[in-house]
Amino acid sequence: MAPARFGELVHLGEGRLQEAVLRPDPCPHGQQAVIRQLLRLAAVLTGHLHDVAPFDPATAMTRADLTWWQAAAIDMSTALGSATAALTAAAGPESPAEDSLLAGAATALAAGRDLLHTHHPPGPDGNSLWSQVVASPAAERALADQVARWSLLAALLAERAAAAGPEPPAGPGGALAAAARWLRVASAAAAPARHADPPAASDLVVLYAVPAAAPERVPPRRGEPDDELCQGIIASAARLQAAAITAAGRPAWSPTATAGAWRWDAAAGAVASHLSELVLRAAAARAAELGLPGADEAAAAADAMAAAVPRWHFLGIKLGQVTTEIRFLASPEVTEASDLLVRLGRLSHASPAWTPAIRDRGPLRSPAAMAPDPDAVTGLLAAVHHAACALEVTAIADRAAVRAAFGAGRLHVPTRSMPERLDIPRPYAPAPAGRAEDIDGVYATCAAAAGQAVQALDRAAAAAGAPSEFLAAARAAASARAAVRPSLGMPAGRVRPGAAERDLRVRGITDLDLLLRAVAIDASAQVLNAEAGHSRPPRPPRPARPGPDPPRLGRLPARPAGRSCRGPRTGLNPGKPPVWLCHINCQVKDDVPGAGGPRQPPRGAARPASAVARPGDVMRYAL
Amino acid sequence: MAADTGAVLERLDAAAGAGDLLAAAWDSFEYLLIAAEAAADPGSASFAAMQLAAAAAAAGRDAVGHAPSMPAAAGPPGPHGTAAAAGLAELATALAGRLSHAALLAGQAADRAAFAEAAAEAAAICDLLGD
């Protein structure tokens, strides 16, 4: 069975939320029932935002490395917190009847968060394609943008529910009305990020495609039907990929990093590539017979896969000439690669008990048997696509492991393979640098061939509309993943506080409101000094924080084409307005439906600092 | 059976003592490795078996190579050649038998472990290539 994907849960939750907004009676079980479920929903949305930006506002304001969407997430969380406070104040005893529609929406969106958390790795850097995707800027943009949309839906619901009861501001109706305003603020808080770093359509595609992580290995069993074989291949490929990435991150002396394991990976790569080629040829033939799109692309992918086979084979030969001081131990990569090639073999051969052993081989299946209908064709393409991605990652990861082992002096060669004149009185000798370089070069060509096969499959999947067509975007998102996902309390990127803030901190004042006002004053003073020409010489640019030139107060920084979105914003950036000041100047209100839609930020005079000194003012302005 | 395979088997049969058997086993695995690599043709139905047999042969060679009784000085290279799957399977079967037996009799524990590990690799080759 295919694993659940984030998009499925979102569709479920969002659908119920929309249904609740549009139902004739906005609160069929009374206002208290709506309040209870809105509280749950706000908690879920806040959780999603915390995953995007795991900082509290006080920590966030001292960081210089926030992305636009992380800053937006912090502002949205603050607004959701205010909505929660308004609702909590009016929440009464448990309602006898539950608003099942809203409860279902909150549960589905919470389940979506749980699904994303299955990719939260034990280590800081993750160990699978999807854990990299979940931590990528693309997923960050898409998720925060989605939360803004859900906040708006919740605001509409709260407004309707408020109007359905006694006249606000009395009682629950008043709380719902107040919560609706804060929920609108939360939604509008995404506007600056949408302007500066707009989410691409592919961001949402990648986010929705995130599957639940496979919890444990499911070994192949005899007689698996084709669709289960395809799903098994996808699961094995994902687990192989994760195992390979994890192995690459292990230290050079890891006992699982052995020449035997690398050789086995190379052999499995050759066999899996060959079996994948057979499957692709069948898919291409059937696509042509059925008049489906993507037949030529599938044939080209089969050619690319066939070209990778001799590379893997040659790599195996080269690896057969070296060894490590630790002999072959079964590792997770070996196990997953075994499952992968057994399932590929059973998919391509007419033997439900196929194994690599000669006695278990069977005849090749006909294309019509392998892909009886169009769905089967795309299913085959998707399965092989995932397998190819895993093989490429394995080649790259093993190459890194071999390099590390050589650097650690763990790579040895049989003495018999050395020139006789060396007369080494041991069976093994340290591998000469030339041998290691030779292997590294073969790995490079092997990884390149595997990568070309993956790219060919990207094209084939896109042409055929295969379920794996998101993989290209997912890999791109994963490769653009933030180098370090900061966690709460990390001092990275901390900027020296200004004079007003320093003064408060020296006096031991920790009140967030006062600190935020001090930050605003410091930022305004910086701008004032700069405009008056009395500012200190600007600091040299930080290489790690590419971003637009410091904006003048009252303007949003324009995003140059192709520039990174990282790092342009915090209230403590010299010469830059604080986060909430940006919100004012880009007219948070514009993002509220019915107000004419988002507009470009005004290019006028700055608002006086005194007008924005309190966060509450921002929210009032927005409303 | 190819003449080279016969020579390897003869050497294996004639081996006396742990050191001699380890050296003969080394040559046998080397032979299996090179022959399986040469026979691994994607156009052949035995491609997968040959690929994995080559990996197992390398693992077996390394197992005996790390045994403490392995002769320190390298001897002359053993015979190399090609053979059909059946010939290689026969050699692997004989190898597995000798090594399993030696695993029970070797004096040093590390030698016993090396023999047992190498025997397992030889048995894996039998399993892959046997009909």
Structure commentary:
- The complex is a heterodimer of chains A (623) and B (131).
- Chain A is mainly alpha-helical.
- Helices cover 60% and strands 1% of the residues of chain A.
- Chain A starts with 5 loop residues before the first helix and ends with a helix.
- The C terminus of chain A is likely disordered.
- By secondary structure, chain B is an all-alpha fold.
- Helices cover 73% and strands 0% of the residues of chain B.
- Chain B contains five helices and no strands.
- In chain B, helix 1 packs antiparallel against helix 2 and helix 2 packs antiparallel against helix 3.
- Chain B starts with a helix and ends with a helix.
- The chains are: A mainly alpha (623), B mainly alpha (131).
- Chains A and B meet through helix 12 and helix 13 of A and helix 2, helix 3 and helix 5 of B.
Number of strands of chain A: 3
Calculate Rg of chain B over CA atoms: 14 Å
Rounded average pLDDT of chain A: 78
Based on DSSP secondary structure assignment, what is the total number of beta strands of chain B?
0
From the structure provided, what is the oligomeric state, counting identical versus distinct chains? heterodimer
Structural class of chain B: mainly alpha
Strand order of the largest sheet of chain A: 1-2-3
Helix count from the secondary structure assignment of chain A: 22
| H/E topology pattern of chain B | HHHHH
Relative strand content of chain A: under 5%
Briefly note the structural class of the backbone of chain A: mainly alpha
Number of domains of chain B: 1
Helix content of chain B: over 70%
